[in-house]
Amino acid sequence: xxxxxxxxxxIDEFITVSDVQRYLKISQSAAYSLTHAKDFPVFRLxxxxxxxxxxxxxxxxxxxxxxxxxxxxxxxxA
Length: 78
Hints:
Layout: E1 14-15, H1 17-24, H2 28-34, E2 43-45, E3 48-52, H3 53-62, H4 68-77
Antiparallel strand pairs: 1-3, 2-3
């Protein structure tokens, strides 16, 4: 690929932390904690956090339980 070539992904290929929060029905802090999990698909650019939609749904399909970082957040916010 040419160094000057840019790729512009359609905006609907990514979701936000708020989208993750609503989809999983978790708190905002739990959703942000999830973005720090080693196996969670996340793209960071400065202060912006975006999650590739296809990777997120693949990640959800492979998870048999709530990740510990989210479970901890749910316990502390209850």
